[in-house]
Amino acid sequence: MKIIIINGPNLNLLGKREPEIYGSATFEDYFKQLQISFKEVELSYFQSNIEGELINKLHEVGFSYDGIILNAAAYTHTSVGLGDAIKSIDTPVVEVHISNIHAREAFRQHSYISPNASGVLFGFGLKGYDLAVHSFL
Ligand code: DQA
């Protein structure tokens, strides 16, 4: 089974960025643990701060992978293009957010990803990515 995690803008700074919201672990360290926990899964990881690169990656993997776990970060709330990209591909997408976006600012409560996602997980910290992998198994 091939699953990719795609992270959007500023998530390369996990560990340093607003640790009171996003925790103190880097995504690279967390990803190593995830690979150990799910040895049977071919797991890969892509991060970009650039909207078009995220769309290109969805097109690249979206007809051959078994699952996509997408944390589009701030683009969740702004990107019609990412929402359309999810509609355009075959691979199911699970939307993940580290924080509880519904307990934060009002602008975070709208997602262009959710209507096109097969499931949504938020508020579980990095554990949300574990749960998303489980959801595909
Ligand atoms: C986030 C929530 C978004 O609102 C925010 O812009 C992020 C991270 C999360 O994982 O909690 O960058 O997607």
What does this protein look like?
By secondary structure, the chain is an alpha/beta fold. The protein has one domain: Dehydroquinase, class II (Rossmann fold, 3-Layer(aba) Sandwich). It contains five helices and five strands, in the order βααβαβαββα. It has helices at residues 19-22, 27-37, 51-61, 80-88, 127-136; strands at 2-7, 42-47, 67-71, 93-97, 119-122. A five-stranded parallel sheet has the order 2-1-3-4-5, sandwiched between helices. Strand 3, helix 4 and strand 4 (93-97) form a beta-alpha-beta unit. Helix 3 (51-61) runs parallel beside helix 4. The longest helix has 11 residues, at 27-37. The protein is globular, with a radius of gyration of 14 Å. 30% of the residues are buried. It binds 1,3,4-trihydroxy-5-OXO-cyclohexanecarboxylic acid (DQA). Residues 10, 71, 73-74, 76, 97-99, 101, 108 line the site of 1,3,4-trihydroxy-5-OXO-cyclohexanecarboxylic acid (DQA).
Summarize the structure.
This protein is of the alpha/beta class. The chain is built from five helices and five strands, in the order βααβαβαββα. Helix 4 links the parallel strand 3 and strand 4 (93-97).
